[in-house]
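can u do me a favor
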């Protein structure tokens, strides 16, 4: 029985995974390079915001089922949940995966299971095996599987338990062994396949969503050119019983939809034409938003712009790949001497790329009082509840259709 699990990477996926495994009764060690993350977990606290996670972490740490360290320990199962950012040309940077694999290698004895959860291009699970065998050629009995996460930030603790999981092994036995582990907490169905299909399944899910968002965003560009209210247009089109168009926005963010489709494109550039085009539409939307702000500023050099929201989606603190951050940075960089106030109720400090541009983090009341232009970028609950009267006399650019009424 695989009772001891090491989860490498205590971020938005790794820490919830470690917590639910520990709650299921397994002995879990979380590994992270960040002192902040390790120290917070060992205190039973969270290094980031996620609904419902704090209580579970506090419970399992107090019970001694979850500890955190910077050193990779011996374990029966290793779950790799580290970032896979972009390298040049929108290819995946596998250096974090390689580092996790190298740190694991000295601890292995020969019958462990290595599970890659990090979202990765096709063939990465085999790559992990090859890296490990290059370091320890004698470890031919170690098994490998890929089990991609498919959860929504803000609902991770619910969806990690209730959603179906795809489990792909380099061998059927590895897939079964991984299924047995996830069955300790997962109430959804566990679907077994090979590792490459599992890797592609996660990328396909997010590419599908990206293409649909791109359709809505492209409609917003067309509607602006034609003088049509895109929100009304989509609302009317969706009256058709077989049409369900998504809502446009300032772009696409997060470490999934904004990233995963590029892994398909980089793997098969000649074939992935539609997926590439959708990515280009969504990646181009922030520039269009900046242009709307530029027009609103006009010739004024002393305008104050209140930018509401920095997270990549509503009611979370996750700024990864956020188009809002990109938009605010570009405004501060390109629009002269304007004053840029960023309102993000879920963070305490600005990322350096904004602070270094002179952007200031402000409370909502302060920003609205000072603003000549109000740019809504994220539909946080706090902004939904705003009294429309407080926007009077200001130029409003609403990228989410939140204040149409």
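np, heres the sequence
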């Amino acid at each position: 029985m695989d009772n001891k699990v090491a989860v490498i990477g205590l971020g938005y996926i790794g820490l919830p995974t470690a917590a639910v495994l520990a709650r299921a009764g397994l002995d879990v060690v979380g590994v992270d390079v960040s002192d902040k993350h390790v120290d917070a977990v060992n205190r039973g606290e969270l290094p980031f915001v996620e609904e419902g996670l704090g209580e579970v972490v506090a419970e399992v740490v107090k019970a001694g089922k979850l500890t955190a360290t910077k050193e990779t320990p011996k374990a029966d199962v290793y779950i790799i949940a580290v970032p896979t950012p972009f390298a040049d040309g929108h290819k995946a940077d596998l250096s974090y995966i390689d580092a996790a694999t190298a740190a694991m290698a000295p601890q292995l004895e020969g019958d462990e299971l290595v599970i890659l959860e990090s979202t990765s291009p096709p063939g990465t699970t085999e790559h992990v095996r090859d890296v490990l065998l290059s370091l320890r050629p004698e470890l031919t009995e170690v098994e490998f599987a890929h089990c991609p996460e498919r959860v929504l930030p803000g609902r991770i603790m619910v969806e990690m338990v209730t959603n179906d999981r795809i489990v792909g092994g380099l061998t059927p036995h590895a897939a079964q062994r991984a299924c047995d582990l996830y069955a300790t907490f997962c109430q959804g169905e566990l679907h077994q396949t090979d590792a490459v299909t599992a890797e592609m399944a996660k990328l396909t899910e997010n590419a599908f969503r990206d293409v649909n968002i791109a359709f809505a965003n492209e409609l917003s560009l067309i509607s602006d050119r034609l003088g049509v209210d895109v929100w009304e247009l989509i609302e009317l089109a969706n009256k058709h019983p077989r049409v369900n168009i998504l809502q446009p926005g300032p772009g696409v963010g997060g470490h999934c939809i904004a990233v995963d489709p590029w892994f398909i494109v980089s793997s098969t550039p000649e074939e992935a034409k539609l997926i590439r085009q959708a990515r280009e539409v969504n990646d181009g939307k922030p520039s269009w938003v900046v242009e709307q702000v530029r027009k609103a500023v006009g010739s004024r050099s002393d305008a104050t712009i209140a930018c509401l929201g920095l997270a990549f989606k509503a009611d979370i603190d996750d700024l990864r790949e956020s188009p809002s951050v990109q938009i605010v940075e570009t405004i501060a960089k390109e629009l002269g001497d304007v004053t840029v106030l960023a309102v993000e109720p879920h963070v305490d400090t600005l990322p350096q790329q904004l602070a270094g541009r002179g952007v200031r983090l402000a409370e909502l009341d302060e920003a609205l009082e000072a603003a000549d232009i109000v740019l809504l970028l994220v539909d946080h609950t706090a902004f939904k509840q705003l009294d429309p009267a407080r926007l009077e006399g200001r130029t409003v650019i609403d990228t989410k259709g939140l204040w149409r009424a």
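The first strand starts at residue 4 and ends at 8. hope that helps!!
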